[in-house]
Amino acid sequence: MNRVATRRATGIVCGALAGAAFTEGFLLEPFQLVVTRLTVASPWLPSGFDGMKIVQLSDLHLHHISRAYRTAIDVIRREHPSLVVITGDLVDRPEETSACLAFLSKVWAAAGGPVVVVPGNWDHRAFPTKRSIAAWHKRIQAETGTRVLANQNVVLHRHGDRMWLVGTDDPYFGHADLDASFRGVPDTAFALVLTHAPEAFEELAQRPAARLVLAGHTHGGQVRLPFIGAVRVPSRYGTRFARGLFKLGDTFFYVNAGMGMSHLPIRFLCRPELTVLTLKKPVTVARPL
């Protein structure tokens, strides 16, 4: 094969690969929801919460309810979770709230149980003042039945036991107040912590009650390359906590890859994610004397 033909063939192959990547990243993956199933076993889990199922979504960045979001509602309806949590970044702009409110209402109806959200950095961009974000949170709760936790906690009861659900405000822009978030939570308790970004992971690992922390923000990198993984993650940790399950000390951390997109409408090798987590208490087998 002469040099001209080789160049032509190379150009055709490169063009085909670029076209395939464009199609995958812009036209296919953003609408293809992946469901991740995970079991987290903790000896500190109260027995009454053994087998509790939690669905996590994150980073909705809702402009309209596309196929991935409709699929998420169907999955929630089938799973019958005890709790649905959304770890921040609901909207990008204040004029897009109607789609978000409609989606949250559908999630609440499909779940048949509590739905809890915490704020993310894009929520604070959309509502930059204390007054505007407080009004937005009030509207979410009034119109969709969804509970907003921002540096607060609530007690969950199940089968005669109790655990704490802690929700921080956004740590990426510095709104998280861990002292306020854990106020009244005993050090010996089991606390499920919701936070938007990994920025406070090391600090949360120092909180005795923080047994499981769920976060998002990273979008899993949004664009991942074979053998490399996430190219860039907006976090002080870089790509260290891009997505998946981690453990610091005795605390488990899970970073969800999110549903939506920011800056560019692309997802490559990083589909929208819905996580189904099941809490388990390990069985202790007594050894014979």
TrEMBL record:
Gene Ontology CC annotation, any one: membrane
One protein family per Pfam: Metallophos
Any one GO molecular-function label of the UniProt entry: metal ion binding
Domain Calcineurin-like phosphoesterase, first and last residues per copy: 52-220
GO terms, biological process: lipid A biosynthetic process
InterPro entries: Calcineurin-like_PHP, Metallo-depent_PP-like, Metallophosphoesterase_sf
Protein name: Metallophosphoesterase
